[in-house]
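testing teh design pipeline on a random one, pls ignore if ur not involved
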């Protein structure tokens, strides 16, 4: 996993931006569905609630959280603050707001359409995460904190990830975030779905890189 501020290639930078756009837009559609979000999204929603921001400003809440986490990581584990982290923070928050506003415009407040919005948003979010993981140019602030905890405790990533997500879920609910069916779904199928999409994208990505390198 790449860390630090080594600048990636232009193509990798554009792919990272695309991945963050998908993550933010997917979160926005899930937010509009009001049927629950993944653990991080639920935590953002709780922060949004205590800051008295509108539902369409969940991305603004993410800026505040990620900025604080990034400052913390800069002093506690600087190797996990990378150029990829900056891209993710800058792009995710903007498109989480835009995704929510777009969903509010095009999706009526009808239950089955909200379900479609939530499912679509979750799949788009997972696809964005898969892109970001596959190109490997850095980690987001939450992943950086998880890796830092792994370094301190010498526990496996998957164990810390589960505990961390459960803590975020509880805190998000206590802060007023919306707990729903998609929160449970994300806990159950999130890992396998992201893993499946990441492996598929990695095959496409490395084939493309090999062809590009051969062509010079």
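output:
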């Amino acid at each position: 996993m790449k860390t630090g501020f080594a600048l990636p290639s232009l193509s990798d930078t554009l792919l990272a931006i695309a991945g963050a756009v998908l993550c933010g837009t997917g979160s926005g559609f899930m937010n509009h569905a009001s049927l629950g979000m993944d653990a991080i999204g639920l935590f953002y929603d709780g922060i949004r609630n205590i800051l008295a921001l509108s539902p369409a400003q969940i991305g603004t809440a993410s800026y505040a959280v990620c900025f604080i986490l990034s400052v913390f990581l800069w002093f506690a584990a600087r190797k996990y603050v990378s150029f990829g982290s900056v891209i993710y923070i800058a792009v995710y928050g903007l498109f989480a707001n835009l995704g929510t506003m777009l969903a509010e415009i095009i999706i009526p407040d009808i239950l089955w359409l909200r379900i479609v919005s939530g499912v679509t948003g979750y799949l788009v979010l997972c696809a964005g995460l898969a892109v970001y993981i596959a190109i490997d140019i850095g980690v987001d602030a939450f992943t950086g904190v998880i890796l830092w905890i792994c370094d301190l405790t010498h526990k496996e990533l998957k164990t810390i990830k589960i505990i961390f997500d459960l803590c975020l879920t509880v805190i998000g609910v206590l802060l007023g975030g919306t707990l729903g069916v998609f929160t449970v779904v994300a806990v159950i199928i999130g890992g396998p779905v992201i893993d499946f999409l990441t492996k598929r994208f990695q095959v496409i990505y490395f084939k493309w890189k090999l062809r590009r390198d051969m062509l010079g």
